[in-house]
Design a protein that fits this description.
Its cofactor is FMN. This is Pyridoxine/pyridoxamine 5'-phosphate oxidase. InterPro entries: Pyridox_Oxase, Pyridox_Oxase_CS, Pyridox_Oxase_N, Pyridoxamine_oxidase_dimer_C, Split_barrel_FMN-bd. Residues 171-212 form the Pyridoxine 5'-phosphate oxidase dimerisation C-terminal domain. The chain has one domain: Pnp Oxidase, Chain A (Roll), CATH 2.30.110. Strand 7 and strand 8 form a beta hairpin. The protein contains 5 helices and 9 strands; from the N terminus they run H-E-E-E-E-H-E-E-H-H-H-E-E-E. Strands 1, 2, 3, 4, 5, 6, 7, 8 and 9 form a 9-stranded antiparallel β-sheet that branches. With 212 residues, the chain is of the alpha+beta class. The longest helix has 15 residues, at 146-160.
Length: 212
């Protein structure tokens, strides 16, 4: 395939300043609902970008589990590569790639651990199999074979029996408090529409349009 020859026009629609909500989180919620209504397979999937203690960038897809004026929420193992990177550098970036709608949203902000009670409430709402999987996986560490992981899941299923699966102390949530949010709408002939929200010291937001 000749990659340099592949292209398509972005014709899903434009974006004007008057279309935007004064609050970027409300604007995000509006777009997210449209992504859900459009039937996108993973509308809450987002790319989390971090930089570790050695300055190495990393990216991975995680699932959004909450969005409010306080921030964007996801959950993970606190021993994972992403968690270790956040401990070293809490400034992160989130990317929502809604390609089918010719849209993307980029969120820049500060990631902070959530209180245990909030993480526990979400953990206890998860399917039992997912709860046990959180115990079984020492995320990002080497494993000799998948069979070893499956055997650990089986062992833990027997250990917990039919009782409540306790919340692991090495697992929980992060909330990313946004400081910048960019909304991108693809445009014909690569004349895309981009608007950047920037949080001010008094927690109000400024909006400016960016060149494509």
């Amino acid at each position: 395939m000749k990659f340099e020859a592949y292209r398509r026009e972005y014709t899903a629609g434009g974006l004007a300043r008057d279309d935007l909500d004064a609050c970027p989180v409300r604007q995000f919620e509006h777009w997210l609902q449209q992504a859900v209504d459009a039937g996108l397979s993973d509308p809450t999937a987002m790319v989390l970008a971090t930089v570790d203690a050695d300055g190495n960038p990393g990216q991975r897809i995680v699932l959004l589990k909450g969005a409010s004026s306080d921030g964007f929420v996801f959950y993970t193992n606190y021993g994972s590569a992403k968690a270790q990177a956040i401990a070293a550098e809490p400034r992160v970036s989130l990317l929502f790639p809604w390609n089918e709608l010719d849209r993307q949203v980029i969120v820049g902000g500060i990631a902070e651990k959530m209180p245990f009670a909030e993480s526990a409430r979400y953990f206890l709402s998860r399917p039992r199999e997912s709860q046990v999987a959180a115990w079984a996986s020492r995320q990002s560490r080497p494993v000799p074979a998948r069979a070893a992981l499956e055997a650990e899941v089986k062992r833990l299923m027997q250990q917990f029996g039919r009782g409540e699966v306790p919340v692991p102390d090495f697992w929980g949530g992060y909330r990313v408090r946004p400081t910048r949010m960019e909304f991108w709408q693809g445009g014909a002939h690569r004349l895309h529409d981009r608007f950047l929200y920037t949080r001010q010291e008094d927690d109000t937001w400024t909006i400016e349009q960016l060149q494509p």
